Amino acid sequence: MRALSMRALSMRALSMRAVVQRVTFATVEVAGVAVGQISNGLLVLLSVGQADGPADLGWLVDKVAGLRIFADSAGKMNLDVGQTGGAILVVSQFTLHGDVRRGKRPSFTAAMPPERAAPIVDEFAQSLRKRGLTVAQGVFAADMQVSSCNDGPVTILLDSSKLF
Fold it and tell me: Which segments of the chain have a pLDDT < 70?
C-alpha cells in the first residue's frame, strides 16, 4: 500500500492540471482593474506540476481546444470553443496541485516553482492563440479576483497524467 501511495504522489507531480468551465462571461481583475475578460467561452484555471514538459503542454492544449462541450443546432454538446466563436480566459492557479491528504493545511510541493511555471502558462495561452482562438489571461502570481457565470453548469477536470 505504501508503494502505491508513493507512486501516486510522484504521478501527481508529473501532471499539468486544469479546471475548465463553460461560461457566459469571465473576468479577472488585479487591484480592481480588469486585466482579462471574455464573453461566451471557456474559463481555464491552470496549474503546472513539478516535472511537466512539452508532452503535458501539448496534450492539454489539444484537449482544451478540442473539448466538445458547446451545444450544436440539435442541443447536443458537440462543438468546441472555436466552432462557436467563443474565447478562452486562462488564469494560473497553482492551488490545483494542493495536497490535503495529510492534515488540513495544503501542501503545494507538487506545483512547479513560479519562475519555471510562468513561461509554461504563457506558452499554453500562446499555443491556443496559434490555433486561431481568442485568448485572454490573468497576471501570473498576482492576487487576482475571478468572476464568471458557469453556463450549464459545465465543469471539466483535466490532468495530463489522466489521473481523473
Answer: 1-14, 164
Amino acid identity, residue 43? L
What pLDDT digit, counting tens, does each position of 97-131 carry?
999 999 999 999 999 999 999 999 999 999 999 99
Please indicate whether residue 126 is annotated as part of the active site. no
95 catalytically annotated: yes
CATH 3.50.80.10 at 12-159, yes or no: yes
Q: Which of 27, 70, 94, 124 is catalytic?
A: 94
Task: Convert 6-41 to b/e letters by CB count within 10 Å (16 or more is b).
Answer: eeeeeebbbbbbbbbbbbeebbbbeeeeebbebebb
Active-site hit among 21, 27, 93, 137: 93
| CB count in 10 Å sphere of residue 142 | 13
